[in-house]
Amino acid sequence: MASSTTGEKKILTLKGGDNEEFILEESLVLQSELLKNMVKEERVSSIPLPSIKSKTLVKIIEYLKKHAELTPSNKEEFKNFEKEFVNVVLEELLDITVAVNYLKINGLLEFCCQAVADRIKDKSVEAVRKIFRIESDFTPEEESEFRKETPEAFEGDLDDTTN
Amino acid sequence: MAMSKAAKLPEEIIIDILSLLPAKFIGQYRCVSKQWCNLLSDPQFIKSHQNIHAHKGEEKLIYVSWFCELQTITFNHNPQNGIDIISRTLNLQQLSNSWVSVAGSCNGLVLVIKREEAKYMINPTTLEYHNIPNFDLALPVPGSCSMYGFGYDTLSDDYKVVTLSYYDSFDENEPAITDTFVDIYSLRKGLWKRLESSPYDHPLSDRASGVLVNGVLHWLVCRTSPYSFLIAAFHLSDEKFLEVAGPTGLGSNYSLCNLVVLRGCLCIFTGIGKDMDTVTCWMMKEYGVKESWTKFTITEPNLDRSMCTLLCSVTDDDVLLDIDEELVVYNMKENQRRDLMVDASLIMYEARTFMDSLISPSFVEGN
């Protein structure tokens, strides 16, 4: 703490699930409520995050950097960055969402949830089960009964892909 | 369960994601699993879903067609910067198509009236419906006129249907009863009760249903002595009439006027203006503030000698008009009509806007 003077930035190491290390300025991780508390309370300089894949961590660090640079004048650019940020395969987007939830980066969590919702909204029930890795616990009879009862309130064809 | 490559989503995130899905997609996902079924049918989830989507402003229109069917209209913005209108006929299982009018709308629930004043609460998104029983004290049909209102009372967390009714035929040998009876039905309690009679005269017109703004139902009414027009405001919480000051510029004759909600604001408009090709509309930009009434006009050669009704706002600058039973979208910024792809059949009586929601029309205690 005493060593940190103005101009000299504190450095922190994040360790991803595959033991890859990421060195970044401490100020960046303060956007994460979880890391902020760890840094503030325990004064650590290296934080292991074994549940987060390195690939996911790279994406999140990229976001933290961009978000830290956000000013009123580059709002448009940031919006475009956000759009590109979630333009990944659905499985990767879900990984990011889970990690962001764990790290408690609130603004980004909302954005990721909206992105997932936009991606799954016209998926078929089967596709949704695959995406969320849920096994149906309805018997085939129950399910067909259910579908009969649920009136056709939906418009358009449903998408079976899980991407 | 076998772990695969991707991380498994905790339930709280699944709830967050599903709350962001438009209501029309939710129904089918109830059969994903028993857990999802419980989750998506949970009144708490339905309520928070409604709160999230209430402010998104994606309004649709519902009306009764010439064939006494219920139809909805969805507005879609096309890449050519135009607006497509997509109409759809609602198919409510087991209910015949003998609809008379759409009498109110709130949080995705719509009050619709069938022949013989039969009242149904429907959710046009989930296609659930619920019959509202007749009140024992309801006036006989035929022999009386009724007007309706429907809204949500935040204080008691209850949906309420209001009927205003009076006898329209009198037996010469009996003393005339000129009261306008005010009856109110609580969806939560499933009960009717009669309130004090209305202090006003309620002229019956084609568009006589209460207009809901800020949780208050509005009707154009008259006071008998001295004879004058005003906007009566029925508050659903204390179940009493108050008055809303109208625009000064309108003068005192509201007889050719109608109320409508545009962009969430109470508006009053004249179907036929002094100049025959102009519709004049006042918008109360800040509810309850008399000084906030703002006038705007819609001038359109097609309006000449036509009956014109403002139906709803489509975007911030576009309004939907019914001009002699033709649908027209008018852009107020450019002061001109837009080209429309309309496949809707003609509108009859009242049209109402509604938003997709999951709220159940059979709203009962504990729901």
TrEMBL record, chain A:
KW Mitochondrion (keyword) present: no
Keywords: Ubl conjugation pathway
Residue stretches making up the SKP1 component dimerisation domain: 107-152
Acidic residues composition-biased segments: 152-163
InterPro entries in alphabetical order: SKP1 (IPR016897), SKP1-like (IPR001232), SKP1-like_dim_sf (IPR036296), SKP1/BTB/POZ_sf (IPR011333), Skp1_comp_dimer (IPR016072), Skp1_comp_POZ (IPR016073)
SKP1 component POZ domain sequence ranges: 11-68
Pfam families per the UniProt record, alphabetical: Skp1 (PF01466), Skp1_POZ (PF03931)
One GO term of the biological process aspect: jasmonic acid mediated signaling pathway
Residue span of region Disordered: 139-163
The protein's annotated pathway: Protein modification; protein ubiquitination
Function as written in the Swiss-Prot or TrEMBL entry: Involved in ubiquitination and subsequent proteasomal degradation of target proteins. Together with CUL1, RBX1 and a F-box protein, it forms a SCF E3 ubiquitin ligase complex. The functional specificity of this complex depends on the type of F-box protein. In the SCF complex, it serves as an adapter that links the F-box protein to CUL1.
Binding partners and assembly: Part of a SCF (SKP1-cullin-F-box) protein ligase complex.
Protein family according to the UniProt entry: Belongs to the SKP1 family.
UniProt-recorded name of the protein: SKP1-like protein
Organism: Nicotiana attenuata (Coyote tobacco)
Lineage, top ranks: Eukaryota, Viridiplantae, Streptophyta, Embryophyta, Tracheophyta
TrEMBL record, chain B:
Domain F-box residues, every copy: 3-49
Pfam annotation, one family: F-box-like
Gene3D superfamilies: 1.20.1280.50
Family annotation (InterPro entries): F-box-assoc_dom_typ1, F-box-assoc_interact_dom, F-box-like_dom_sf, F-box_dom, Gal_Oxase/kelch_b-propeller, SCF_F-box_component
Domain of life: Eukaryota
NCBIfam families: F_box_assoc_1
Classification via PANTHER family: BNACNNG10540D PROTEIN, F-BOX PROTEIN CPR30-LIKE
Name this polypeptide is given: F-boxkelch-repeat protein
